[in-house]
Amino acid sequence: MFADQSMLAFNSLEDFQKFYKSLNLPIPWRITTEEMNQRGDRIKHTPYVNHLRRKFGEKKLFRRNVSVAETVSFIDNYFIMMKVIDSLKRHLPAEIFDRISLYNEYKIAFSKNRRIDFILEYEKTILLVEFRLSSKFPNVSSVWHRKESELLIYKELLKNYLPSDYNVILYAFIAMPEYNYGNKIFKQIKYNNENADYFARYIKRFLTKMK
Questions:
Q1: Of the CATH numbers 3.90.1570, 3.90.1200, 2.40.128, 3.40.50, which one belongs to the domain with range 3-25+76-207?
Q2: Confidence band of 143 (pLDDT split at 50, 70, 90)
């Protein structure tokens, strides 16, 4: 149902993990405090950026091509989602974990090109996920509320054409930069890791209905 309108579609979370590894990103991937344009400028000619920009254009879902800065955001989101999936593996039995599908950059029909970062699907429940970076802890709450408001709008738009027996749930993940001028920000790495585990437990409880 969602694959045709998504930049990327994966039948399982393991397939997404394989895709992430196939990008051959720098290890570790560094979410830094720099502006997206600055980060994008340093990597704009790399094979993984070119690959993602081609993938975005192949579906012909959008009127314009994706910017290099946006591809940096994509990779940041993938990096955080990998943390979530690694944690989810510890929380779910394999037979449940293997039945979760994932869709990336889903274009909502008749929405003037609105896109959802990720959709996770399990049976007849879908989870809409939006990511956002916040550089300062005091901003996390306000940024979260803005993203939650966007998700509520996306949910209403999807209800125009989703089957009536589908359940739609939402999650806004506010991540933080993990490096500043090459130095680890340990407090913010800890924050991201803890929130990835919290999100994994949310998925277990509300997407798969496991206690």
A1: 3.90.1570
A2: confident
